[in-house]
Design a protein that fits this description.
It holds the Pfam family Porphobil_deam. It catalyses: 4 porphobilinogen + H2O = hydroxymethylbilane + 4 NH4(+). GO terms for molecular function: hydroxymethylbilane synthase activity. Belongs to the HMBS family. The structure is a single chain. The chain is mainly alpha-helical. The protein has one domain. The protein has three helices and no strands. It has helices at residues 9-12, 18-21, 26-36. The protein is globular, with a radius of gyration of 15 Å.
Length: 82
């Protein structure tokens, strides 16, 4: 199986409010299009960004058990994260 990392418009637009540039669906619209045009066979995405209405022809296949939600960034030197 090959993997492909996608950066959607929602990932790239960081200087505007999400509601002003397309809302939550902005993160998944491009991925959905890749599924429809068969560029990819499946996608894994954060459920919080998936709209409540899923387009006909796509299926929410599974929701796995949640792992520890406490992500941490640890660095030797102080820096800012953008």
């Amino acid at each position: 199986m090959k993997s492909k990392k996608s950066f959607t418009k929602g990932d790239r637009i960081i200087d505007k409010q999400l509601s002003k540039v397309g809302g939550k669906g902005l993160f998944v619209k491009e991925i959905q299009n890749e599924l429809f045009d068969h560029s990819i066979d499946m996608a894994i995405h954060s459920l919080k960004d998936v709209p409540s209405v899923i387009p006909e022809g796509l299926t929410l296949g599974c929701i796995p058990d949640r792992e520890n939600p406490y992500d941490a960034y640890i660095a030797k030197k102080s820096c800012s994260i953008r």
